[in-house]
Amino acid sequence: MPDVTKTVAAAGDVVDTPSVAENSTSAQKPEKARSLWGDAWSDLRRNPYFIVSAGLIVVLLTITAFPGLFTSASPTAGDLGHHYIGKPELGSIGSEGWLGYDIQGRSVYARLIYGTRASIIVGVAVTLIVTVVGGIMGMIAGYFGGITDAILSRITDIFFGIPFMLGAMVILQAFTDRTIWVVVFALAFLGWTQITRVMRGAVITVKQADYVHAAKALGAGTTRILFRHILPNAMAPVIVVATIALGGYISAEATLSYLGLGLASPTVSWGVDISAGVQAIRTSQHILLYPSIMVSITVLAFIMLGEAVRNALDPKLR
Q1: Nearest 5°: CA angle at 193, between 120 and 122?
Q2: Which end of the chain is more exposed for a tag (fewer CB within 10 A), N or C?
Q3: How far apart are CA 286 and CA 259, in angstroms?
């Protein structure tokens, strides 16, 4: 029973109040410790780069999922009555002719909106594939070591030695119908090496931890150790690299489409529009300018997000 002292009120009543010892005990309750991810989220919410980049990415994802909310114009319907040399109707925000028309009389604004889908799908799909494939290979190589590590590391070195863009161009040249998923395959086929190296290094570090040795001593299986103890603690650097690389894949898709080796009409893509805009660069710079700006903004948003996540997850940078 807690110790109490009796105090006489002004009206003569007796009131029980807790003693000083009990008050000091209740005031010294320990705070709940936060995890690495909890600390990272707390830092991210105060980081202006994260807020800006996350806001841009949310807008881009919304455009990708619901392009009809932003324009009612068709991105493929051309009308030669809309001359591409004419000035954009900058005063009519959101209209079909807001950003002008291209050489075939198609709305540049509508093509910007619908072109977001191709770029975001390519970037996200390639990032997911290389993260899963590269993460699994890196985890196996780093955990088992020995001959397994040697074989997987040499395979990784072989693919790492292939120039990324040149290799993607050679692969795409073998396909006559270059759809979105063909481009995703070409980029993912060569893009998993960096994730593998990062995951391998992280797993080699994490597997030396005491909690991993304790799990082995208690008889935990290899699968449980890998996915319950090692993977959650080795994912931080992989997430950072994957987020930054996503912007690079979007840029790579635009570059390949510009060179005529990526997506092609009738697929609506920023790279396709940049390639078409070069033909009218002397008279109608807006055809080339706006899709180029969209590519730059999208790549910058994912790079800023990756940098913000890296700063939040790396204790040395706090």
Answers
A1: 10
A2: N
A3: 19
